[in-house]
Design brief:
Strands 1-2 form a two-stranded antiparallel sheet. Helix 1 (27-40) crosses helix 3 (58-67). The chain is built from three helices and two strands. The protein has helices at 27-40, 46-52, 58-67; strands at 72-81, 88-98.
Length: 109
């Protein structure tokens, strides 16, 4: 007879709700890595960004960079030729134009 290996606090999917034991990678750290990668590789695509900066979801990180953390990120859509050369596809390329400016409160104390 097979036993259910899930503990009582785990849901139906078998994953713990608070992911005990997994290292957390905060979004702010992911944004900093993405910014460093974009500065070193201007015009990178989401796929290149996800692989180069070791991100889970590059589109979510870029969105958070703009909205929550104040990075200036420029996006341009370009037509790139497909492998066969007959067709083309639209691809988004990203540039880092500025990092967030944080107030230096110790100067005013």
């Amino acid at each position: 007879m097979l036993r259910d290996s899930r503990s009582p606090d785990q849901g139906e999917g078998g994953a713990s709700p608070d992911f005990v034991g997994l290292p957390r990678d905060p979004r702010e750290g992911q944004c900093a890595r993405a910014a460093d990668y974009m500065a070193a590789h201007p015009g990178c695509t989401l796929r290149e960004l996800a692989e180069g900066a070791d991100l889970g979801s590059a589109s979510k990180v870029v969105s958070e960079m703009r909205r929550r953390y104040g990075y200036a990120v420029r996006c341009e859509r370009k037509r790139r030729a497909c492998r066969d050369g007959e067709h083309s596809r639209r691809e988004a390329c990203y540039w880092l134009e500025g990092r967030p400016v944080r107030p230096q409160m110790e100067l005013w104390a």
